[in-house]
Amino acid sequence: MAITNFPEFDKTKNYSINQLDLGDFQSIANFVATLPKNGPIYGLDCNAGVTYEGAFRYTKNGIEETFGVNHIGHFYLTHLLLEKFDIQKIVIISSALHDPTNKAPFAKAVYSKVSEMSYPKIDPNKSIEKQNQAFYCTSKLCNVLFAYELNRKLKGKTIVNAYNPGLMPTTNFGKTGKLINTIYMKILYVLSHILGIATNPKKSAKYVALLLREEFKSGQYFDIDKATKSSIDSYDETKAKELWKDSEVLIFAILNTKQI
Description:
Strands 1-2-3-4-5 form a 5-stranded mixed β-sheet, with helices on both faces. Helices cover 43% and strands 10% of the residues. It is built from 7 helices and 5 strands, in the order αβαβααβααββα. The chain is globular, with a radius of gyration of 18 Å. About 5% of the residues have low confidence. The chain has 260 residues and is α/β, with parallel strands linked by helices.
């Protein structure tokens, strides 16, 4: 099924912005506590995706930042919201890089235990740059595993789908200060437009808004504008259940040692 026929959105509605740091459990809890309990949440878009270069970085709760924000932060936020609200639709933003068979010139996603993804050790056989790339790709695999397991647990009560927004070379995401990276990004920008595979934040945001607005089958993976198969790894229910359980254990352990 393709995503088409964008509706006209009402720009006269009132909007408010609340502070939320997905790398801080206390910030997540405070955010949920400030939301008024006056009805269901129409749509939840789990969109944060961070990456970095250089030495490993950690969230306020001591979790490796990429995994801590991209997966654990969304996982905890979604759980707290579901405890307080009925949510009609959830879209979890992943990436084509969640698939280890993707031919992009980056390190591949490698799922491991939550404890290892949360507190990674430096691998002397890999560069820090490649390890950081793997952190990002693996977190995007976790996003799809989480989406599918959440769909199974909610059993149709909420429509849950994963979404790949596509290649967006016009953003600064993934750029570094290195000359070779700058040259690569410029080449990527030109080639992606020639091949017609580039997209942009505005276009992808419209697709996500439509996924949250219209009725689509739950438990799907959307690649830009169409439903398609995700990676073989993402359908591993054993990994998805382990990820769910161990994410809960990690959060519970941190909350109960008063690290927030």
